[in-house]
Amino acid sequence: MTVYIDPPNWPGHGRMWSHMVSDTSYQELHDFAARIGAPPRAFDRDHYDVPSERYADAVAAGAVEVGSKELVRRLKEAGLRRPKHRPVGRAADGPAAD
């Protein structure tokens, strides 16, 4: 049970962003995100977008720093990857309540 975060290398909306994922479940990820104050709207299919100014908060709360390729690898190995071209739902990804 680990939450991972990559460096804030992703530009958007005038900020730099990180991605935060779980290697166990979406519920673990949602619980962790709530503990660090990430809003539900920051969840995007299989990860949370975390602004660079909140990166240190996530790491201090226990998120493990990894590179972007490693983050995606762990997400895929956990079976939690939801690519944009694949629909989200029971048939494609298991229970939607995750």
List the helices and strands and how they pair.
Blueprint: E1 3-5, E2 10-12, E3 15-22, H1 26-35, E4 43-44, E5 47-51, H2 55-60, E6 64-65, H3 68-77, H4 90-93
Parallel strand pairs: 1-6
Antiparallel strand pairs: 1-3, 2-3, 3-5, 4-5
Summary?
It is built from 4 helices and 6 strands; from the N terminus they run βββαββαβαα. It is of the alpha+beta class and 98 residues long.
Structure in words:
- Helices cover 31% and strands 23% of the residues.
- It is built from four helices and six strands.
- Strand 2 and strand 3 (15-22) form a beta hairpin.
- The chain is globular, with a radius of gyration of 13 Å.
Main beta sheet: 6 strands, mixed
The best one-word shape is globular
What is the helix tally? 4
How far apart are the first and last residues' alpha carbons, in Å? 15 Å
Please report the total strand number as a whole number.
6
Q: Structural class, from helix and strand content?
A: alpha+beta
Average pLDDT metric: 88
Low-pLDDT parts are: 90-98
Percentage of residues in helical conformation: 25-40%
What attributes does this structure have?
6 strands, alpha+beta, 98 residues, single chain
